[in-house]
Amino acid sequence: MRRLLLAIYALLIVVPLVVIVGGSFKTTADLFASPFGPPTRPTLDNYVTILQKQDLLRVLGNSILVVAVSVPVTLLLGSLVAFAVARLPRWPSRILFGIFALGLAVPAQAVMIPQYVQFDRLGLRNSLTGLMLINVVVTLPVAVFILSGFMRTLPAELFEAAEIDGAGTWAAYRRIAVPVAAPSLAATAIFLVVMHWNDLLYPLLFIDEPGKRTLPLALLDFQGEYLTEYPLLFTGVVVASLPMVLAYAFLQRHFVAGITAGAVKG
């Protein structure tokens, strides 16, 4: 039974992946004639069209900039809060963790209108700075939730020894907690990169200017009211996914170590 469920789950992952990657090498006619079959006449025209788009480099640069700023800031704030959760006494620690856990319980759609009004008043609409800010705010509870599980497993003796040597709270965080938590930080970074890179909701909500669009928002150009250019859309999805695939390929060792870190005690 377990193998059957795993096989069904694998098909749910593999079939869409095969359709998208194979469809990026097909024409529209070939795709509709055989959506699940291999390309009969493979073509790179879709990739040429995507790469020749004048704003591709701009939207790609926007996405890279948003991710490059949002992820380190979220990791910094998240690790600081997680360190506080691990080092504070029981009740203050629970209250602090509960405040950020509430951020996971509130659906994003429930606060979209207040966020839009507030960002409009502050002049943060159509701004990459505003997009970075909302990314940090939305994903900070995720970072705190992941990192707190690891920080709580750090032996208290490490910090007691640091205090005896004269290290303050900041020194203990910077010289002990951060280096030891490197695998967990790497795993959290991968989660955050994927979330920020693939985010469509907030760019769609806050960005109207073509020059400030991110890559997922630019992919909507291939989807019209009456016609969707599926081969170009699939090609754009493949191009947008490549950085994530490469990042995971290089960081998978840290990803697995970070996921298992803090899972057990003792």
Automatic annotation (TrEMBL):
Keyword line: Cell membrane, Membrane, Transmembrane, Transmembrane helix, Transport
Domain ABC transmembrane type-1: 60-251
Membrane topology reported for the UniProt record: Multi-pass membrane protein
Subcellular location: Cell membrane
Pfam families per UniProt: BPD_transp_1
A GO term from the CC aspect: plasma membrane
Main location: membrane
CDD domains with a match to the protein in the record: TM_PBP2
Segments passing through the bilayer: 57-83, 95-117, 129-150, 176-197, 230-251
InterPro entries recorded: MetI-like, MetI-like_sf
A GO biological process held by the record: transmembrane transport
PANTHER family: ABC TRANSPORTER PERMEASE PROTEIN MG189-RELATED, ABC TRANSPORTER PERMEASE PROTEIN MG189-RELATED-RELATED
Protein family: Belongs to the binding-protein-dependent transport system permease family.
Protein name, entry field: Sugar ABC transporter permease
